[in-house]
Design goal:
By secondary structure, this protein is an alpha+beta fold. It contains eight helices and 13 strands. Catalyzes the ATP-dependent phosphorylation of thiamine-monophosphate (TMP) to form thiamine-pyrophosphate (TPP), the active form of vitamin B1.
Length: 294
């Protein structure tokens, strides 16, 4: 913990020292509250640590940048098991290392509610950031990563089940394509974000910021057999997970139609004149994603 190519001074002093060769620093923060964003009976400390880190590291990748460091604040009940806190630290460090970053410091405080606040820093290495407001009519919409897996896992756990493992594990520790963010930047992405609240909800942010309409093609969305089977058993439409489930932290981006996309990127829709997000040309009826205050 605390070591990495961009870390000049790790934990131990009043502040860490992180290199910023680009002279600009990407920064993002996120808070996870027990009972609202995670449950300790659903995931281990290591898995929750990975989830907390991924939520922030994905934001850096979604700007087209490279994660460099994490700062973590832990507010916890005085009787929190020390072994669990150590597992949390291991998970944070492991996910950071996976993205090429390191945990460089933080703080701890007593609190009646277990709360994990993470701040991620990143570097653009001389490139322009990819914002939400650059999508243009004629662009294609593409995704790198899985959709609906974590949402399905959450539903399964909330119903008292623990399988299929593929979906439950996706909720417990998402697999983020960190390298796809800078790659999209190099491929000429016009807008990008990570899907944390749901595909339709987050594409709505791009549509609003860019002043465009986005249409998603249902036939282009991957729905694995395990998800179809789980949806049938639970009486759920699997597309509700794919279109509105969050926490997979896949990256969604818009590209010029002539962009030569790699296999990491899968085209799922188009950008046009107008506003809002539709599915197969129609307004989607149903929940579009996570609402923090619902």
């Amino acid at each position: 913990m605390g070591t990495g190519p961009g870390v000049l001074l790790g934990p131990g002093d009043d502040a860490a020292l992180v290199a910023a060769p680009d002279s600009r620093v990407l920064a993002s923060t996120d808070v996870l509250v027990e009972g609202r964003h995670f449950r300790r009976d659903w995931a281990s400390g290591t898995e929750i640590g990975r989830r907390a880190a991924a939520a922030n590291l994905a934001d850096i990748a979604a700007m087209g940048g490279y994660p460099t460091a994490l700062l973590v604040a832990l507010c916890c009940p005085p009787d929190l098991d020390v072994a669990w806190a150590e597992e949390l630290a291991d998970g944070l460090a492991a996910e950071a290392a996976l993205a090429g970053a390191a945990v460089v410091g933080g703080d701890i405080s007593a609190s009646p509610v277990l709360t994990i606040a993470v701040t991620a820093l990143g570097d653009l290495r001389g490139a322009k950031p990819v914002l939400r407001g650059g999508a243009r009519p004629g662009d294609v919409v593409a995704v790198a990563g899985r959709l609906g897996y974590a949402g399905a896992g959450l539903t399964i756990l909330s119903r008292g089940f623990r399988s299929p493992k593929l979906l439950v594990d996706a909720y417990r520790h998402p697999e983020v394509h960190y390298a796809a963010g800078p790659q999209a930047n190099q491929l000429g992405a016009t807008a990008m974000l990570d899907i944390s609240d749901g595909l339709l909800a987050d594409l709505g942010h791009i549509a609003t910021a860019s002043g465009v309409a986005i249409d998603v093609q249902r036939a282009a969305l991957d729905v694995p057999a395990a998800m179809v089977d789980a949806a049938k058993a639970l009486g759920v439409d699997p597309y509700s997970w794919v279109l509105a489930g969050g926490d997979d932290h896949a990256l969604a981006a818009t590209f010029p139609p002539y962009a030569d996309l790699t296999d990491d990127w899968h085209v799922i829709g188009r950008v046009s004149h107008g506003g809002g997000v539709t599915v197969d040309g129609r307004r989607y009826i149903g929940q579009k994603g996570w609402d923090h205050f619902r």
